[in-house]
From TrEMBL:
Gene3D superfamilies, A to Z: P-loop containing nucleotide triphosphate hydrolases
Family: Belongs to the ABC transporter superfamily.
Keywords: ATP-binding, Nucleotide-binding, Transport
Protein name: ABC transporter domain-containing protein
Lineage: superkingdom: Bacteria
Pfam families linked: ABC_tran
Transmembrane segment boundaries: none
Keyword hit for ATP-binding: yes
GO molecular function terms noted in the UniProt entry: ATP binding; ATP hydrolysis activity
Length: 314
């Protein structure tokens, strides 16, 4: 497991990471979510031994990152922010170089290169210089070098940044498949990515952890948890009847689609039965009807734009 205790980083007078404590077990995919400048990359750089903490400790499967950096780094794969690489090398040369640095030679080296080339679909660019690749391919090369030694811990800073939707889907599938027996920590700005791949999400702002929960627990904190959206095909004036339903806290009207309403429930209420009862009693035609589990963007905004966190998020 990874155990992080009271981790801190200051740059001069500025505190970028302000005492973060958590642990992660194999099988977990932990997502760091936060506004720009929240401290996600700085935390990852300290977890991987890339920069020295100003305070606190990081232990990776029992190896302290400062006391035993080689043992810790052997079992970590790291995709740094922006996926830096040696741009004048071809993909094949670069992966060969990384494999050698990781201690592989001969057939073992080649079979490891072949495996990651296959996993990241790099065949078409294998003999091209990395500098000439598109942003998406560069990112895939970055992920390939991070997994070449089949590490127990994978730390990926914005792994899908710059990828097209198909590539995003592929990389998320890969992360999911790798995560079965590994610890995976990713940072992302993409909220849908958290629901798609993370078993746990940590919202960070101003170098502090504001929330640490499963994506569905976070969604349940949203005002849209159990909200019902309905689109009705009727000329009746339905809004006041919907607003008067028991358990309804507020009704939002869709600006662009007539007859479409979102019913926000009071805490722990369900408005679904009351709404369907009203619709049936009046014989209104339903064009669309669904219940939401909640909205992560709503929770993210709430947490990161209140109180001390306002400055960071704006
Ligand atoms: N080497 C450095 N010297 C001075 N300040 C730094 C340094 N590295 C990071 N910072 C500052 O620390 C804060 C946290 O930066 P960090 O890159 O960790 O944020 P982040 O959450 O990863 O943001 P983003 O989502 O934009 O990548 C920022 O205000 C950044 O400007």
């Amino acid at each position: 497991m990874i155990r992080i205790d009271n981790l801190k980083k200051s740059f001069g007078d500025f505190c970028a990471v302000d005492g973060i404590t958590f642990s992660v077990e194999p099988g977990e995919v932990l997502g760091f979510l936060g506004p720009n400048g929240a401290g996600k990359s700085t935390t990852m750089k300290m977890l991987t031994g890339f920069i020295k903490p100003s305070g606190g400790t990081v232990s990776v499967f029992g190896h302290d990152i400062e006391q035993a950096p080689l043992q810790a780094k052997k079992i970590i794969g790291y995709l740094p922010e922006g996926a830096p690489a040696y741009g004048d090398m071809t993909v094949h040369q670069y992966l060969g170089f990384i494999a050698r640095v990781r201690g592989f030679s001969g057939d073992e080296q080649q079979s490891r290169i072949n495996r990651v080339v296959e996993q990241l679909a790099l065949q078409a660019v294998l003999h091209r210089p990395i500098d000439n690749l598109s942003k998406g391919f560069k990112r895939r090369v970055g992920i390939a070098q991070a997994i070449i030694h089949d590490p127990q811990v994978l730390i990926l800073d914005e792994p899908t940044d710059g990828l097209d939707p198909n590539q995003k889907h592929q990389v998320r599938e890969l992360i999911r498949s790798l995560s079965k027996d590994k610890i995976v920590i990713i940072s992302t700005h993409i909220l849908e990515e958290v629901s798609a791949v993370c078993s746990r999400a940590m919202i960070i702002a101003n170098g502090r952890v504001l929330a640490d929960a499963t994506p569905s627990e976070l969604e349940a904190r949203s005002r849209y948890h159990h909200a019902v959206t309905v689109e009705l095909d009727t000329d009746d004036n339905v809004q006041s009847a919907i607003e008067a339903l028991p358990g309804v806290k507020a009704v939002e009207i869709s600006g662009s689609i007539p007859g479409r309403f979102t019913l926000i429930p009071n805490d722990d209420s369900s408005v679904f039965n009351a709404l369907t009862g009203l619709v049936a009693a009046n014989g209104w035609e339903v064009k669309e009807l669904y219940v939401e589990s909640g909205r992560l963007d709503d929770v993210f905004r709430d947490l990161t734009t209140t109180g001390d966190n306002r400055e960071v998020a704006e």
